[in-house]
Every structure is written in structure tokens, then in C-alpha cells.
Amino acid sequence: MSALSALKTLPSHPIAGGHRRRSSPFLSSLTNTSPTGHQLRSSAAISVSLSHSVIAPGRPVRAVSANVVSEEKQLEGSAFPVISREEALDLYEDMVLGRTFEDMCAQMYYRGKMFGFVHLYNGQEAVSTGFIRLLTKGDSVVSTYRDHVHALSKGVPAGAVMAELFGKAAGCCRGQGGSMHMFSREHNLIGGFAFIGEGIPVATGAAFSSKYRREVLKEACDDVTVAFFGDGTCNNGQFFECLNMAALWKLPIVFVVENNLWAIGMSHIRATSDPEIWKKGPPFGMPGVHVDGMDVLKVREVAKEAVGRARRGEGPTLVECETYRFRGHSLADPDELRNPAEKSRYTSRDPITALKKYAIEHGLVAESELKAIDKKIDNLVEEAVEFADSSPPPPRSQLLENVFADPKGFGIGPDGKYRCEDPGFTQGTAQV
């Protein structure tokens, strides 16, 4: 029996919306209204059991049934918390770290400490924390150009991330990646990607590697890959091609759509024929899930099941997290296109404030403990800035490293030294 078909119903966690709905945490349909008034979600819960239908003779296809879930766990209607005290503290600290770090990035950018485009994650912390804090060190994460917080959630030190943003040699990519290209082999962060969609094939390859190691090389490998990308990516070819490949080979991967409703200045509702992205999973033979991405507890419940399915060898899942960014597309964006009332509506559902309220009301933590975490994170981020600012820039000899597999003949001259160390290196480049 599929783990999905055996899943019971959990109550909706009312930390963000203030209401309770009887729904499965996996494949539940939450009633949300888009900025244009388009009703994105049905109020009925959708069963996660998988049924078989036939679209052509001899071609069975797995599809998600639309039966309303009737079974409930005893937690329905109860005030009993669904997370432990330790989990509450970990979730809160990780989310506060992401928010505080990004706020500091804005300050440093406007002070001229960072260059190029910098895209902040404010408002979307529940997605990163809800998924990544469940992963093991061996699991892989593939990100987008909005990748600082994904790196932090995966365990990359704040100092290494900040130094990378400053373009310093102490950065996690030695200052060569910058804001949109965070990478850490040690933490299995397989990169941020500047062009939308280009990280999805890389993530699919990482998931294939895990499956190959387990099934062909007979290694004890149950590593999972989580691929993050935005709603603007979901009309691109790589997205559909990789859904097909992942389902065909039952790869251990979770595709996470961070639907913040805007692709730069284009409304998601105007850009796609069917705004319900999660529906694109079942046609490829994988579950499609929608979850309130402003509620870290809901995201966490969905993530548990999706990651668990992948780890058990049951294949991929497509998860749409409906969230919202509190700042413009990048720090160069004046953010004048979005309706102020829309922004106000989402900022009132701040995922950090909601988790704080939930944890205190359920007696999991004291407010003084959360204030202590706030202070701890403030100090940590200040130290990260000091570390980055005092770190040396990359040496000139690093210019051609990691560009060619073997730089000899171009990067290294007959004398064995890097050509870029020659003061006349840039002269006559076309002839070289």
C-alpha cells in the first residue's frame, strides 16, 4: 500500500490564518484568494490515495483521486501542539536567522558592500525552514537566485554566506559566486542558479545519483534531493522534462514551488493558463500538493510526507507552497507594481510572528526565550558582517581557477605561473 493512501488526516494548524479546516496536511486544498480575486483553492480536502486510471489501452497512469478525506486523528479540534518544544525553538531560530540576515543584507547593499543584483527572501521563511530543517546532512538542496536563506537553513555558516555576498575569499565560493550562486559541497548545497529553471535538471541529476548509488553500486544511500524554484519557472520546458524523468525513474526528489504570486512584475494569475501549479504533478504520475506557505507547521507536515516518500523509494512529489515576498523582486526593484492592500494583507500573516504566537499560546516556550534567540541572532549576524568586512579579497591568481578542468595552455603559462599574474595579461586577449 502506498504511504499516501495510508495517510490520516491532521488538523490545519491555525498559526497563520486563524481558522481551522478539516483537511489532510498532504494534498489539502486551502481556500485562498489571489490579488485578482481569482479563487485558487477549493475548500474541500483532497484525498492523498492514489488510484489508477487508463488514458489509452495498456497505459495505466497514476492519478490523484478527489475523494474527501473522512478519517481524523484525535488531534482534530484539540489545543494539543503538533510540535515539541525543541522543534518550536529550532524552527523559530532558523526563521529569525533568515529574516535578520536578509534585513542586514539590505543595509549592506545600500552601503555599497555588495554588488550586482541581490534578491531577498523576506516573507518566505516558512518554506525554507519547513523543508530544509527536516533534511539530513547527506540530503541535497538546489536553490535559485533567492538562495541566501536556503544556504543558512542547510547549515552554511552565516559568516561564509555574508563573505560570499561581499565577494571575499572567505566566502563559501571564495568570492566567485556572489549573491545568486551560493554553493557548499560540505553541506550538499548544490548551488543557487541565476537563470530560472536551470537548477531543476541539476537537482534531477543529484536524485538520479542517489538512486544509482543505492540500486547499482549497492551503497547504503537513502539521500533525498529538494529542488526549490518559483512560480515563474513552472511554464518552462526544464520543469516539465524533469517531472517526466523523475516520475519515470521514481527518483528520490521533491520539487518545491515557492509561489510568491509574482514573477518579477508579472502576476502569476496573468502568466499561466491554470494558476494551480500542484495540478501539474498527477499528469506525470506523481502527487501534486498545495500548502499554505505562510504557515511553517503546515509546510513541515507536507514536507515530512514528501521527503519520507522519496527516502522510501516511492518517487517524487510536486509541492506548491503559496507564499509572498515582503520586498521587491530585488533590492534594485522599487516594488511599485504590487497593490499596497495586497502587500498589507500578506505582511499581516508574517510566518515568524504566527509561529511565535502559536508557540507561546501552547505553552511550548516563554516569550523571554524567544527574545533571547532574537538577541543571539542579532549578534550572530553582526559578527558575520564583521567577519566578511575584515576578510581579504580573492587573489588575482584565483581569476581563472574553476573555469577550466585543466587550465594549462591558457590559464597557466610556460613558466608554470597563472597568466593573470602577468600585468600585461589583459593585453592582446583576442590573439590569445
TrEMBL record:
Uppermost EC category: oxidoreductase
Amino acid composition bias (Polar residues), ranges on this chain: 25-35
InterPro entries (alphabetical): DH_E1, PDH_E1_Alpha_Subunit, Pyrv_DH_E1_asu_subgrp-y, THDP-binding
Keywords associated with the record: Oxidoreductase, Pyruvate, Thiamine pyrophosphate
UniProt-listed Enzyme Commission number(s): 1.2.4.1
Keyword Oxidoreductase: yes
Transmembrane segments: none
Span of domain Dehydrogenase E1 component: 94-394
Top-rank lineage group of the source organism: Eukaryota
Reactions it catalyzes: N(6)-[(R)-lipoyl]-L-lysyl-[protein] + pyruvate + H(+) = N(6)-[(R)-S(8)-acetyldihydrolipoyl]-L-lysyl-[protein] + CO2
Region (Disordered): 12-35
PANTHER family tied to this protein: PYRUVATE DEHYDROGENASE E1 COMPONENT SUBUNIT ALPHA (PTHR11516:SF60), PYRUVATE DEHYDROGENASE E1 COMPONENT, ALPHA SUBUNIT BACTERIAL AND ORGANELLAR (PTHR11516)
Protein task: The pyruvate dehydrogenase complex catalyzes the overall conversion of pyruvate to acetyl-CoA and CO(2). It contains multiple copies of three enzymatic components: pyruvate dehydrogenase (E1), dihydrolipoamide acetyltransferase (E2) and lipoamide dehydrogenase (E3).
Subunit structure: Tetramer of 2 alpha and 2 beta subunits.
Protein name: Pyruvate dehydrogenase E1 component subunit alpha
Source organism of this protein record: Platanthera guangdongensis
